[in-house]
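In the design runs reported in the main text, the only information available to the sequence generator was the tokenized backbone. The following block is the verbatim input for one such run; it is reproduced so that readers can re-run the procedure and compare outputs position by position.
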């Protein structure tokens, strides 16, 4: 039983009013990851599990990292990041680098911030994958973090 005392304090439970953050799950800071794969590969350690307390609640997912992409001479290249819930692609971004002399680099940040509706009270897994558009290029991703916040509805 939840009791609201005369001094305004709450005892005996937790009020989960709409918009409140119920739980937070996050990864440790992600180590540097590099790939020259033109197919998506898992970003090492960028995986987390969260179990919503209600199937109607939302999950605010945040992923951020820095990236460096090597440029291939006379070729436009890009690196791509995507977020998955279990095996479903729910967010994807592309970061391009124009053609130039080989050895140059494009640098930037990847920031994914979105609200997901998993519609379950069972555990869900969120993870990040990355790839490059040309196997002669390499993307280096570092100083990243993946976080999930359950939001009461």
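Verbatim output:
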């Amino acid at each position: 039983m939840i009791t609201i005392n005369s001094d305004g304090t709450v005892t005996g439970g937790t009020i989960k009013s709409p918009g409140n953050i119920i739980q937070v799950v996050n990864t440790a800071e992600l180590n540097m990851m590099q790939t020259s794969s033109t197919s998506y590969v898992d970003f090492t350690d960028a995986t987390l599990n969260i179990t919503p307390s209600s199937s109607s609640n939302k999950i605010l997912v945040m992923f951020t990292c820095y990236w460096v992409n090597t440029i291939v001479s006379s070729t436009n290249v890009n690196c791509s990041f995507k977020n998955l819930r279990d095996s479903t692609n729910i967010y994807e971004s592309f970061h391009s680098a124009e053609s130039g002399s080989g050895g140059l680099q494009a640098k930037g940040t990847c920031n994914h911030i979105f609200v997901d509706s998993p519609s379950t009270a069972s555990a869900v897994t969120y993870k990040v994958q990355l790839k490059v558009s040309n196997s002669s290029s390499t993307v280096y991703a570092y100083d990243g973090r993946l976080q999930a916040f359950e939001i009461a509805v």
